[in-house]
Task: structure prediction
Amino acid sequence: MKWESVAALGTLPPRTRVVMGANLISSVGTGLVQPFLVLYLTRVRGLSVGTATAVISVIALASLVGGPFAGRLADGVGIRRTAALAMATAAVGTSGFALVTTVWGAVLAGSLYGLAYGAMLSVWNVVIAGSTEGRTRSAAFGLQFVALNAGVGLGGVLGGLFASTADPGRFQWLYVTDGLSFLLAGALLVAAVGRPRTAAPTGPVPGRTADVAGRGYGAVLRDRQLLKVLALTLALVVVGYGQLESSIPGLVAVQGLDARVMAWAFVANTCCIVLIQALAVTRISRTGPAALLAATATSWAGCWLLLLLAMTSGGPALEAALVVGALAVFAVGEALLAVALPTLVNGLAPEALRGRYNGAYSAAMSAGLVLGPLLGGRLLAGTHAWLLPVVLGLGCLACVGGALRLGRQASTAPVAPRATPDARTEETPGAPDRLEHMEGGGVR
Result:
């Protein structure tokens, strides 16, 4: 068995490896508290279930603002200051939950954390894209996802061993520890980024339908190729990611299965993600992003098919096995998506607008995470719960077609020349080929 992740990690620049370490640290902290927020707010702080779930919605809505704001800030004052602000805000937000005693306190903490959550997606992507290029960049995004899931998984285990609803102080320590993890990760991230030097702007790609060399989100939104990527991102998150922690557990509850089935399904999901990236990150990074997105949508369609079969299997043991298998299949798409989308977005982004491009991508992801549960909840609320896997499965198949079409269009698009060494910066050393490896072909 060859662990491609080890070899791929060795090919990354030293500061990119430091960024991976920072991501791992913050992910462990996130894992300490992520599974317990609703439980903590209801069982420990005495808030209603409706209020607790509303706080989750507040976090998602705030992240819609955080991503674009961080993108603009990164292009304006630099990624170093933006990273410091995002990590500090995340630390204050998550630590604030330790002191929550009222509804408004929970909303305030959730708003701060949500702003930081959206900002951090932009920050991580900008830093990684700025220190890598080509296939190394794709591998770096894959390894980032490994660090994220491994860290959240480890943190979840540690948090589960330490948390106790009988002792509020234990939850407070968990949230404070999460805050400290953001501060430590932020310090490493700021050190890894270093001080910026002036960069020469990159021009628009010849033949593109819009001149994206101007500044501001107006220029970003005139990039038609990016808009297609963002539309596909939104669709994929609505029919996939947006359902993972909302409608899929809801479907399991509707079927009357034991809650432990969902717990084991998430364990299988996390293990599969880590194994797929660890064993195949190099091969994944050599595959065109459009092909990866088509494979993502296909695997998620397979997940919905397995869940539909679980609803009609007639036996609790088989139902449980199908649910666990469905989330394992879902993990395949997650592993591929984590490489494909940020690679696509940063392949399109000129250096002067890289922050805003990633901010727009963060907003599309956040919008999908808001709309997905709303759609899933609507489908589950009726008397025909089977509509959930059917409708969303068909949506996944439509996304397969969208990804393949995106790849065909990209295969005829012109490619910009690489930036000269003089145009490189300490923050973003190297402007890779725009649209590099975007075609929907196979392994290169």
